[in-house]
Amino acid sequence: MVLPDSTEEFLLLKPLGGNDAEVTGVFAGPGGEEVQSAAFALPDPRGFSNAGRAKLLVNAAKLAIRSGAGPFRSLARLGVEPRPYQLVPLLMALRQTPARLLIADDVGVGKTIEAGLIARELLDRGEISRMAVLCPPHLAEQWVEELRAKFGIDAVAVLPGTARRLERGCNPGQSVFDRYRFVVVSLDLVKSDRWRQDFLTNAPEFVIVDEAHASAEGEGMGSKRHQRYRLLEELAKDPERHLILVTATPHSGKEDAFRSLLKLLNPDFANLPLDLSGAQNEAARRSLARHLVQRGRADIQDYLREDTPFPKRHDAELKYTLHPEYAALFDDVLAYARESVHVPGETLGRTRIRWWAALGLLRALASSPQAAAATLKERALTAEGGEEPTDLTLIDAVGREQVYDPDAETSEATDLTPGAQVEAPDTEATRRLLKLADRALALADGKDNKLGLLTTQVRDLVKQGFAPIVFCRFIATAEAVAAHLAGELKGVAVDAVTGRLTPDERVTKVGELAAQEKRVLVATDCLSEGINLQQAFSAVIHYDLPWNPTRLDQREGRVDRYGQASGEVRVLTIYGEDNRIDTLILDVLVRKHRLIRATLGTSIPAPEEAESLLDVLLAKVLDMDTRQAIQPSLFAEVQDFDVKWRDAAEGEKKSRSRFAQNAIQPGEVAGELAAVRSALGDTKAAQEFVLDALQGAGVIVSPRMDGTFQANPGQADVRAEFRDFLEQAPSFRFGGTPERNVTVLARNHPLVEQLASTVLGQALDDPQHALAKRVGVIRTSGVSVVTTLLLLRHRFHLTGRKGNRTWQTLAEELDTLAYVRRAGQIEWLPAEQVQTLLDLPVEGNVDAADKETRLRTAAELLQSEDMQAALSERARARGAELLAAHERVRGAASGQGATYSVEPPGPPDVLGVYLFLPIPKLS
């Protein structure tokens, strides 16, 4: 087939029955190849089988299609099978010109897939040719991998560490953003003065903004957000640019920030009334609903009666008490910390350094003896030259990053231990710290009750079949915990992943551990984002409480999400009952965060005053002489903080009730989805085809009670083309939740695609030895008169026009027709009768010579002028139906942006001819 992007001198060719990987360029100009037109040959009447293999060929041909003709052009070539609810944002986007959406579904629902679907669809339609994803830098590699694996989009990451290298690959004067069609870009990089104008000048026509709430603008939100928002505002000014905003928390109680995001979608939204409730604002709500999709798990769990399994979740808090020697060390460290922050005559800068050093020491001591010792031995807040900084803003910024948990929306978590030493190395204060460090290390030998509790819990989880991830705050803690568990748990693989490893090394190590039968992963928060772990791990243990409750969701969200292989997820939170730092964080942040999530069904970030509140409360801790717990609820600052958090949750609740997705009704999705599955084949078709093909190839497949199938990869006399399948998927199932050592097959799985292409290619190239036969004669009681079934492949030129631009893509569709001849006239059967022919039983034999004669007669009829005219008319009719489907999907946007025409370049290809003969009646 000559593809539409060809020119007179350079042809892009794809083999009939081939896939996109087999596209070849041929130079046909002067001195080049001699290329001749060819017609698709009718099947050889001699290449029949005894039992007929019509259905095998039908399914192979359907499953091999990668350029479907239907209104969802992308679904045939994805590396993932979208859930029905994930098509809702796609339908919403297609009904806009340009697409402007805020996708605000809950964590773990699949917002990345929803945004990627829109990009892939517009690319396959030819409406866009370039795209960019703007995201926090630590999420860039995850986006690159998701785009590649699930959508076949090869993007490059433009980050501070890669931008210069990518520039060197550009032509003189060429921008990185012009050189590469698909980019994943750090938003904080392109908002800077160095890159801002370059990106705005060369920005692609399609932009996804991940973690969009981190760019919202509002009162008191800081200069960083202001710069990000200005950049997005400039991008949104282009009336032709598609803009997809992605966030799990669009509102969070901040009305001005929420409205700033809405204004990016439509400037008119700036004038929406503050209160959108009531009948008088129904038109405004409807207008907004066309741009906003926001659903929780409960909304999509049974969407279109197709179960989307999320794991059941069980949470528990586990407390421990300090060993007496650990408690004594805690008292002495508290005494030191209290003294260190109240040194008379100190400069303000040095006082702030002492403050952060004291907090870092207390946090490390609550984590582990090893983290405490490392902190006690480390110099506090030194600059690169070893000097203490004097800029108060810098001191507080570095201190917050080392001690608190950094803003999870914009930067990767840090896991380095802070320093506690402020004095010179030979001072009495430093010597005192080093003695405390020695005492801390001595506690690691059997006097760490927290580690003992963890060991018991991990052993129990592994025995119950769970694979836990233990999250720690510091590298020193993670490495010590991993080493201890590895020594205690026999027959269990244990490894640690921390910030010492590069992102690629982390992925490799997690992959190696996931291959082990019993496994435990110990990690710092460097893994709380960027890698989804639901197929390899099923429990989360918070060994150290995060000081930013958003980290709870990020840690748990690695495993508690769609696609979790286990039906149940365990979440354990460990805290020190007599550790007032732990109890403070638990009462003020962790429990309230979880209460809001349980009540609302989604998480609301803590108010921005959280860090200031911690400053106040931790100052009170350092002012007390003993380790007794404080009661935070008694403080006015905590009460005010609680009110703001509750107000934010209430605002989010009202927002969700007002803006529940109602722009696309389930019936609309169901109708389009049914049409796509009928045309391209679904998981059921994949199952029928794979089992039929394996059986035809002589492969022994054993079904199991749990719904899986087993095939021995060592079976002899198996055709070479089936060996890859057996080696890669000795145990497989069709659809459902991924599970260990079982390959989940669906329509777009590479093994299914390879098998379909192989079977179809054999049928076209080697009909005598092919598994699927292009012709067949079947004796059956299911018909009363000779019935002929035709398997057709339509090829369409799908031409799009927008402004002065015109483009063309190739589309394919399988079609089955059947007819009977009565009194010399052809009668075409209705579609519902045609479908039943493929399932009729074979109930009698037909002489080989008779088969060949009948098939030759059928072939002669196909070549007749009347039949060719009928098939051409069928192709035109199908083209008109497909155009109507495209216009139906586009809805009100049809004709406003891109317009389409669907034309068949000629009559359809006849892939197969099958005759069904009635059982002769006895005289």
UniProtKB/TrEMBL annotation:
<feature type="domain" description="Helicase C-terminal">
    <location>
        <begin position="457"/>
        <end position="612"/>
    </location>
</feature>
<dbReference type="InterPro" id="IPR049730">
    <property type="entry name" value="SNF2/RAD54-like_C"/>
</dbReference>
<keyword id="KW-0378">Hydrolase</keyword>
<dbReference type="InterPro" id="IPR014001">
    <property type="entry name" value="Helicase_ATP-bd"/>
</dbReference>
<keyword id="KW-0067">ATP-binding</keyword>
<protein>
    <submittedName>
        <fullName>ATP-dependent helicase HepA</fullName>
    </submittedName>
</protein>
<dbReference type="InterPro" id="IPR000330">
    <property type="entry name" value="SNF2_N"/>
</dbReference>
<dbReference type="Pfam" id="PF00176">
    <property type="entry name" value="SNF2-rel_dom"/>
</dbReference>
<dbReference type="InterPro" id="IPR001650">
    <property type="entry name" value="Helicase_C-like"/>
</dbReference>
<dbReference type="InterPro" id="IPR038718">
    <property type="entry name" value="SNF2-like_sf"/>
</dbReference>
<dbReference type="InterPro" id="IPR057342">
    <property type="entry name" value="DEXDc_RapA"/>
</dbReference>
<dbReference type="InterPro" id="IPR027417">
    <property type="entry name" value="P-loop_NTPase"/>
</dbReference>
<keyword id="KW-0547">Nucleotide-binding</keyword>
<keyword id="KW-0347">Helicase</keyword>
<dbReference type="Pfam" id="PF00271">
    <property type="entry name" value="Helicase_C"/>
</dbReference>
<feature type="domain" description="Helicase ATP-binding">
    <location>
        <begin position="92"/>
        <end position="268"/>
    </location>
</feature>
<dbReference type="GO" id="GO:0004386">
    <property type="term" value="F:helicase activity"/>
</dbReference>
